[in-house]
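Team,

Forwarding the record for the chain on the shared tracking sheet. I've put the sequence and predicted structure together so nobody has to dig through attachments.
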Amino acid sequence: MNKDLTVGNPQQVLWKFCLPLFGSVIFQQLYNLADSWVAGQFIGENALAAVGNSYEITLIFIEFAFGCNIGCSVITSRYFGSKEYGKMKSAISTAMLTSLVTCALLMLFGFFLGNSLLTWIQTPSELMFDSKLYLEIYVLSLPFVFFYNLATGIFSALGDSKTPFYFLAISSVSNILVDILFVKNFHMGVAGVGWATLLCQGISCILSLVVLFKRMNKMEMEGEFQYFNLKLFSQFAKVAIPSVLQQSFISIGNIIIQGVINGFGAGVIAGYAAGVKLNNLVITSFTTLGNGVSNYASQNIGAGKLERIEPGFKAGLHLVWAISLPLALLYFFFPETLLRFFMESPSSQALQAGGLYLRILAPFYFVVSTKLVSDGMLRGATFMKEFMIGTFTDLILRVLLAILLSQTILRSTGIWCSWPIGWTVATIISVYFYRSRLSK
């Protein structure tokens, strides 16, 4: 059901809207967590390392889909808030056509250059075959990834965070079961992990699109509908391109870091592969909540209710900090227990590397969650230049420090230390821009 985010108590409205988003991202991450768990438990440590190694490349594709999601969501929210439903539907159509072309280009990129990327990040020879196989199957699933992300972005723009949650919950649980079936019973190896993910992502995507199109047909609109509108494309691109660049450069930075990590051997790679999945579960959760803040800000700006921005910002901080506390405690005190979830017989090196990685990052979840709420406000108001500055500061610092500190006596520990430093500096920048541009 569509929900107007411009009326009611800001904290109650934002929390009721964002909590299903948080649930959705938990289930979304189950796709990747299930892949790693099944690979580690039923195939072996090298299979876990191969899936984790490919993961940094698949993130490039995911972030393009995420950027299209954000661009469509922010513009749709703006026109939904101002009740201009004709422009809203034209914006959705324009975003879908643009995303279709983008997806096709990325699939060509993945098929023809995937092997070169794996070589570039110094994938060990014993991991190359499985890494390439998983990556190729993932590329086939890209249309489902793109259009599911678009559908969820549109639902969120309409104030509906529950519908995609229901679809994703069913699909994610199914993915775990099919993963196990393909790998344990059918003995398909890493290929079984990839095909199970593709199948379940496809189901989730198709169900979401069917419901979305039915809901769009029920909404009456004024004005002419256009399948593609150049002005609306420009508005979409203004938000989508910086978001794509932000996320893609982050992924490229992570690939560079993965290349540095690969120099420390399969044990550290496997520990990092498991640890980064757990860390990305947290960061993706905060990012999704930040997207909810963007929808809130965009709807209220579209309705001309700027006085609701600051209460929304404070409500967003209270929400992410409440989530940060249990996660930070869990990751800091019990990282090895969580890492064993992915590995049947982990080496001591893998447990030590992954555990230290999580312990160093966990206390700083309060910091990075603050940044992502500020980013959400800036993006919802389409202050994309300010949004990009904070993000690139974080990225550049993390990559440079990972390279430099890994060559000192800190070794791989130096790589883990680059995360909190980048997060802290970028948070200061993002909050400053929010205060100077939006805070009353």
